[in-house]
UniProtKB/TrEMBL annotation:
One Pfam family matching this protein: Pyr_redox_2
Domain of life: Bacteria
Reductase C-terminal domain location: 302-364
Keywords, sorted A to Z: Dioxygenase, FAD, Flavoprotein, Oxidoreductase
Cofactor dependency: FAD
Keyword Flavoprotein: yes
PANTHER family documented for this protein: APOPTOSIS-INDUCING FACTOR 1, RIESKE DOMAIN-CONTAINING PROTEIN-RELATED
Alphabetical list of InterPro entries matching this protein: FAD-oxidoreductase/Apoptosis, FAD/NAD-bd_sf, FAD/NAD-binding_dom, FAD/NAD-linked_Rdtase_dimer_sf, Reductase_C
Gene Ontology cellular-component terms listed: cytoplasm
Protein name in the entry: 3-phenylpropionate/trans-cinnamate dioxygenase ferredoxin reductase subunit
Keyword Oxidoreductase: yes
GO molecular function terms attached to this record: dioxygenase activity; oxidoreductase activity, acting on NAD(P)H
Length: 367
């Protein structure tokens, strides 16, 4: 291959560029990103960035970027995959490439009248809005919503979190562990309302609930998940279904096109995790250079979240059989294991609150 185009300049795109160079690709490398910023780390945006403790955290220093010898096309969107080797861009130019890495990530689901937090520009706007707000409403008690609520509370704001499910994070952690995470809001003075949908958000920021109640809020943030950024691929040669369809090695139905990160539906699973993006990049680029699937990626599902001074770590999958192995839920410091439904001796998932050492030791034996 002489030219490889990476569409997406965030974590998955950068790690793909680095992996290609590490694996010996010395041809032309073009990285396209719709943001004007060089790759930065997203997790701090909902935490230390909102708190004003840090500014944008680069994912690589200038020396490392220079070593990639890549062409950076920033502030430009991909608008279509015209063929198996040609990408059209929003500035009316095209890129012809022998190989393509799709790393366009996800787009936040939105509610009119709310802020979202996905990009650095989103975070700048939200931090400015927090400066004058007294009451903050957060729609969605998943990881991103809980982190935003935690940051707002640390800034001294009155915080109300609205969650449609009866228990936060049930789909990820199960009801018992989701409830344990939900208790963190009350522990630190935030109000958590569960089991109710949002009807609308007022222009002035108040939240109207489906049961007629109203939540006072100067600023409202929607943390209700993302959808894969695949609009630009519609009608093209690559198959789509809840992301870019690919095998366990990130290879699509077009052998010279691979997908990595939040946008990739690998073997029926789309993982929106920092670690997954990094690990997938290594595997998918290897397969791209090989011209076939010679390696696969097994999703470990590792995710972490910092909320109200507590670090939550999770890996694997949640089941109904969950057992506290150390500590106590009431103390918000524990490690619990999820057991396989058919073989209870097999540990298939682990969750920890503020117990990183034991979590790390137990995850080595994860099935």
């Amino acid at each position: 291959m002489r030219t490889i185009a990476i569409i997406g300049a965030s974590l998955a795109g950068l790690r793909s560029a680095q992996a290609l160079r590490q694996q010996g690709f010395d041809g032309r490398l073009v990285v396209v990103g719709d943001e004007v910023h060089l790759p930065y780390d997203r997790p701090p945006l909902s935490k230390d960035f909102l708190l004003g403790k840090v500014e944008a955290v680069p994912l690589a220093d200038q020396e490392d970027l220079d070593a990639l010898d890549a062409e950076w096309r920033l502030g430009v969107r991909a608008t279509g995959l015209l063929s198996t080797g040609e990408v059209s861009l929003s500035d009316d130019s095209t890129i012809e490439a022998d190989g393509i890495v799709i790393a366009t990530g996800g787009l936040p689901r939105t509610i009119p009248g709310t802020h979202v937090l996905r990009t650095l520009d989103d975070a700048v706007k939200l931090r400015e809005a927090f400066g004058t707000a007294q009451h903050v409403g957060v729609i969605g008690a998943g990881f991103i919503g809980a982190e935003i609520a935690s940051s707002a509370r640390a800034l001294g704001k009155d915080v109300t979190v609205v969650e449609a499910l009866p228990t936060p994070l049930t789909r990820v952690l199960g009801a018992e562990m989701g409830a344990a995470c939900g208790h963190l809001h009350g522990d630190h003075g935030s109000t958590l309302i569960t089991g109710i949908n949002v009807d609308s958000v007022n222009v002035d920021g108040g939240i109207n609930l489906a049961d007629g109640r109203q939540v006072n809020a100067d600023v409202v943030v929607a943390g209700i998940g993302t959808r894969p950024a695949t609009d630009w691929l519609a009608g093209g040669p690559v198959r789509l279904d809840n992301g870019v369809l690919c095998d366990a090695g990130g290879v699509t139905n077009v052998k010279n096109v691979v997908a990595v990160g939040d946008v990739a539906n690998c073997a029926g699973h789309r993982a929106e995790h920092w670690t997954s993006a990094t690990e997938q990049a290594q595997v998918a680029t290897r397969n791209l250079l090989a011209g076939e699937t010679v390696a696969t990626h097994t999703n470990g599902g590792y995710v972490w979240s910092d909320q109200y001074g507590v670090r939550i770590q999770f890996i694997g999958r949640a089941t109904r059989d969950v057992r506290v192995e150390d500590g106590s839920i009431e103390d918000r410091k524990f490690v619990a294991t999820y057991r396989d439904d058919e073989n209870p001796e097999d540990v298939v998932g682990i969750i920890a609150m503020s117990n990183a050492r034991l979590f790390t030791r137990l995850r080595r034996n994860l099935k």
